[in-house]
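Team,

Forwarding the record for the chain on the shared tracking sheet. I've put the sequence and predicted structure together so nobody has to dig through attachments.
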Amino acid sequence: MTDPIADYLTRVRNAIMTKHKVVEIPSSNLKKDITKILYEKGYILSYKFEEDNLQGKIKIALKYHPETKKPAIKSLKRVSRPGLRKYARADKLPRVLNGLGIAILSTSQGVITDKEARKLNIGGEVLCFVH
């Protein structure tokens, strides 16, 4: 697999389109950090890291509106990819839907959102957009 983050986003996107309640994804530290951010920002219901002797798994419970059954995540878009990395300086950080969505960045301070990066005044690699 050449791009594990794109695979992560695609699995979540596909699970949302088919209205699954839980999606299971192979684990890595970067994927765990992205999952924690999605949970903190209210895009997913819960998550669980399962360790086995191999790679481990992340189980994500997806969030839907109770009445309309619309998913909390409307769009997941990979920005930086192995063939073309996208970096943003602190003063040029992207805004997703004028602040309604989030951009997830990999920085020297770890994996954080665009809003946190603005507060810390640091830039980094733009991993994905979520709204």
